Amino acid sequence: MGSWGAGQPYHPKSAQSPLLRLLTGTSWRPALRAAVGPTVVLLLAALVAAIPSDYSLDRAFPTPEFGDRFLSTLATALNALGAPFRLGFQNPITRSRSENLDVTFWVVPMTVTVLWCLALWLGLRAGLRRRKADGSQLTRGQAAGEALRTAVVLGLVTAVLGLIAGTDWNPGNTDGGYYGEGPGLKPSFSTDSGWIWAVGWTLLVGGLLAFTVYGTDALRWAAWRNPSVRGWAVAALTAGQALALTVGLASLTAFVLVAANSDQGWETPLSLAFLPNLGLLLLGLGSGATVRSDTTRGAVPGWSDYRDSHREFSFFDLHGETADWRWTGLLALAAAGLLGWTAYRRRLDTADRLRLAAVYAVLLTALTAASGGLFSTSVSLRAPTSGSWGGGNNSPSTQDTSVGLAFLSVLVACAVWALVGALLVPALLAALGGRGAAVPYGAVPYAAAPYGTTPYGAYGPVPPEVPHPGGPGFAGPPAGPVPGPVPPGVPLQAPPYGPVPPEVPHPAGPVADAPVVGVSEVLGSHDGPPAPAAGTPQPGAAPRPPEEPVDPSVWRDHP
C-alpha cells in the first residue's frame, strides 16, 4: 500500500498543514511572556480612568461603584486597539413608554496604543535574546512561527478582555425628578465594546511587529544580499526615526496648547490619552490638509426635519478662524527639516531618498487617517401605538458626526512635504556644508564620508558578524585585491552581491561560533567599523569574482 514496507521513513509532521506546523512547532512560552506587557498597559489605562469618582449625569444619579467604573473604562481602553465604545441609556417614562439613547464613540487614544506597542516590542526583544542565547539564528520560517503564535495569544487575550469589559448599571434616582418616575421604574445604563474589531487589529499589528522583531536575522541577510532590500530597509528605519521625532514634537506642542487654553480641570488629564491624535491634527493642518467636520442627522417622522451640517477649513482658507492657526506651519517646516537632516546624516543617494519619501508619506498618512474620530448617536422613543409622541413605536432619531482631516488632502500634503524634506533639504545642507555640487550626493567617497562609511552610512557594508560557513561547498576566503578609496568625483561601484568590506572575517568553523546581532545593529548603527578580528584577510585579497554565485550553503543554512 503505497510506501508501506518500502523502507522509506515516515514522518507524521509531513502530513500536517504548514499552518499547524507553525502553531505546534515549538513552545508557546515566548508568546505568553510577550503578551504580559501589553495586557498590563490596557489594565493600567483602565485603572487610571476608573479612579476618579465624580462620574455622574447632571447630579441626577449617584456615582457608579468602582467595579462598574473599571469594567466600563476597560471597554474604553480597548478603543486603543480599534474597538468602538458603546454607551446605552434607557429611561422608563411609564410602564409602556421609555426613552432609549445609544451612543457610539470610535476614537483611538493613540497614547495607549503607543504604550501597548512599546510594551510588546520590549517583550519580543527579551524573548529574542533568550531564543538566541545559544548563538543560533532564526530562519524565516521560525520567525513566522513565533510571530503567528504571538498574534494568536494577543488575540485571545484581547477577546477575553472584550468579553469581560462592559457593565449594566441600574442606579437609583437621587432627586425623584424626571428620570425614573413611578414605582419600580428605574433607568439603566449599559457599556460595551466592539471587541471583534480589537481582536482583528491586534492580530494584524501584533503579528507584524512580532515578525519584524523575530525576523531581524532574515532581514539582515536579505539586506546584505540584495541592494534593493537594503535600500528599502534603510528607508524604513530612517523614516521611523524621523516620524517618531516629528510626532513627539507635535504631541508636545498639542499638550502645551491644551494646558494653556483649557477652562476645566478635566480637559488637560483627558488630553494625555489623545496627545498623538492632537499632534497629528496640528501637523496635518500646518502641512496644508483640510480639517473637516460632518454631521448627518436623520429625521423623526412626524416630529421635525434636520439639516446636515458640513464645516471645513485649512491652512490656506481659515473660514473666519483666527490667524493663530497658521503658526502650525512651523510644525510642517520642522518635520521636513528633521526628515532632511536624518537623510543627510545617513548619506543616502537619490534613489534611497525617493524610497525614504515614499515610506515616510505612507506611514504619516496612515497615522493621520487613524487619528480622527467618529461619534454616532441614536435616540428613540418606545411607545405602544403609532400615534404617540415621536411618530411611532421605536422610531429613532440618528446623528453621525465625524471629525478629522480629509484623507485626499492628507495624502497630497504628506507626499509634497516628504519630497521636500527628503530631496531638497539634504541638498541644501550639503551645499551649506561646502560639498554642494562637487560630489554627487549618492557618490560620497570613502575618504570624505564621516564614520568611515559607504554611501549607505553603516547600512551598506557586510558586518563582521556575517558568518560564512565552511564545508565542501565553500572555496575559502576570496582572493584578489579589494578596491581602495575612491578618488573624489568618481561614483562608487558596488559588487553585484552587495559591498563586502575588507574587515569581514571568513571563519572556517561552525556558524554558531559567530557573534549574532540584530538588524538594528547592522542597519542602524552610527559607529565606525569595528577593528578586524583575528584571521581577517588583509586588503590585498581580491573580492569574489562577479560570475561566481554566492555559496548556496549561506542561504540554505540561514534565512
Automatic annotation (TrEMBL):
<feature type="transmembrane region" description="Helical">
    <location>
        <begin position="234"/>
        <end position="260"/>
    </location>
</feature>
<protein>
    <submittedName>
        <fullName>Uncharacterized protein</fullName>
    </submittedName>
</protein>
<feature type="transmembrane region" description="Helical">
    <location>
        <begin position="147"/>
        <end position="165"/>
    </location>
</feature>
<feature type="compositionally biased region" description="Low complexity">
    <location>
        <begin position="509"/>
        <end position="519"/>
    </location>
</feature>
<feature type="compositionally biased region" description="Pro residues">
    <location>
        <begin position="478"/>
        <end position="508"/>
    </location>
</feature>
<feature type="transmembrane region" description="Helical">
    <location>
        <begin position="403"/>
        <end position="425"/>
    </location>
</feature>
<feature type="region of interest" description="Disordered">
    <location>
        <begin position="469"/>
        <end position="559"/>
    </location>
</feature>
<keyword id="KW-0812">Transmembrane</keyword>
<feature type="transmembrane region" description="Helical">
    <location>
        <begin position="356"/>
        <end position="383"/>
    </location>
</feature>
<keyword id="KW-0472">Membrane</keyword>
<feature type="transmembrane region" description="Helical">
    <location>
        <begin position="325"/>
        <end position="344"/>
    </location>
</feature>
<keyword id="KW-1133">Transmembrane helix</keyword>
<feature type="transmembrane region" description="Helical">
    <location>
        <begin position="103"/>
        <end position="126"/>
    </location>
</feature>
<feature type="transmembrane region" description="Helical">
    <location>
        <begin position="195"/>
        <end position="214"/>
    </location>
</feature>
<feature type="transmembrane region" description="Helical">
    <location>
        <begin position="31"/>
        <end position="51"/>
    </location>
</feature>
